[in-house]
Amino acid sequence: MSNIEFEEDNNEFYQKTQNLLGQKSQSKMISFLLKKKIVKNEKQATIILAVFAVIIFISAFSVFKYNTQPKEMRFIDKYGIEYSTEEYINLVKSGNDPLR
Does a structural domain hold residue 2? Predict the structure, then answer.
């Protein structure tokens, strides 16, 4: 077995996450909201950020859903007349292909 030891007290990343002088560390976004006086306390900031995250998620889902829906194909003949897919299929079945 290897004798690997971690010195957590001297680890730079561990020290950054510790509570310094009994103060709880805040995220930068919460600090920003408090500094700009958008919210009054950390609880309000957390709620605002959660609501913002939900709005972003719903927006992303809506864009994804909208962009993945199949679009109706349109056919345009040489004279510029536009046909829907259903109209074009009916014309072809009747023996009149407007694209030829």
Answer: no
CB 83 within 8 A of CB 76: yes
Q: Are residues 75 and 96 in the same domain?
A: yes
Count the Cβ atoms, other than its own, within 10 Å of residue 33.
21
pLDDT digits (tens, 9 = 90+) for 3-29: 776 665 555 565 566 655 555 667 899
- Give me the helix-helix angle, 42-68 and 28-35, nearest 10°: 110
Domain total in the chain: 2
Is the pTM for the entire model greater than 0.90?
no
